[in-house]
Design goal:
alpha/beta; 34% helix; binds zinc ion
């Protein structure tokens, strides 16, 4: 159910009041969102994105307004695990609806460089992947890919060609990664904009032997709103 917490919990839950994933109001301990927000969810993306090297990608919210603030919180330290769990449940729901959920063998994430994880104290894509795997009842392997140390932030590159080249340069297969031959992999991230990052990571997973790669993200660029009535959007 969309608004109920799963078994994947954080110690912080014991000490902090439970807050609505969307508005921050204090709520009953086992809920993810308050009744008001449950009745009035932000606009969601219902289609699938045709991203190179993936079968397709699903996203949940549009990257705008309160959602972009919540994603910022997810990256920079505010405790918004309910938001990550809400997004994960919605990613899982979309995969179930499309008959994909049972086909996933492993859930992984777009990797972050270790130094950044240490600096931030959190890897938001890993958090999303863990919650999504939990919702799907599938194992995670978050050590399939690695990101080299590079100070360029992907979202600061404006040209698609620049983003593609950058993504291809910074990601690689992790040394000593598990054998994923013939496996169907779901790769999770926080936001999909041009799809360059997911595409580069999916290409690597395929080169490592994966049979198929799907992608799931909490948000997609508001650019895709224009196409919201299309089931399958070419990225
Ligand atoms: Zn609320």
């Amino acid at each position: 159910m969309l608004s109920t917490k799963s078994g994947y919990r954080y110690i912080a839950d014991i000490f902090l009041p439970n807050r609505c994933a969307l508005c921050g109001k204090v709520i009953v301990w086992d809920r993810l969102i308050c009744t008001d927000c449950g009745n009035d969810l932000p606009e969601t993306f219902e289609g699938s994105l045709a991203i190179g090297n993936t079968v397709f990608a699903v996203g949940v919210f549009y990257y705008e307004g309160n959602i972009s603030k919540l994603i910022y919180g997810l990256k920079h330290g505010r405790a918004v695990f309910n938001f990550a769990e809400l997004g994960a449940e919605m990613i899982a729901e979309r995969l179930r609806k499309r008959g994909i959920a049972d086909k996933i063998d492993i859930v992984t994430c777009v990797p972050m460089h270790r130094s950044k994880v240490i600096a931030r104290g959190r890897d938001q894509a890993a958090v999303i992947a863990k919650f999504t795997a939990d919702k799907l009842g599938k194992p995670t392997d978050l050590r399939l890919l690695r990101r080299s140390k590079d100070k360029t932030e992907q979202h600061k590159l404006s040209e698609k060609s620049e983003r593609t080249a950058h993504a291809q340069a910074v990601y690689s297969a992790a040394k000593g990664h598990a054998d994923i031959s013939g496996k169907t992999v779901l790769i999770c991230d926080d936001v999909i904009t041009t799809g360059s990052t997911v595409s580069a990571c999916a290409a690597l997973l395929l080169s490592m032997g994966a049979e198929k790669v799907y992608a799931g993200s909490i948000a997609v660029s508001e650019y895709y709103k224009e196409y919201e009535n299309k089931e399958y959007i070419e990225v």
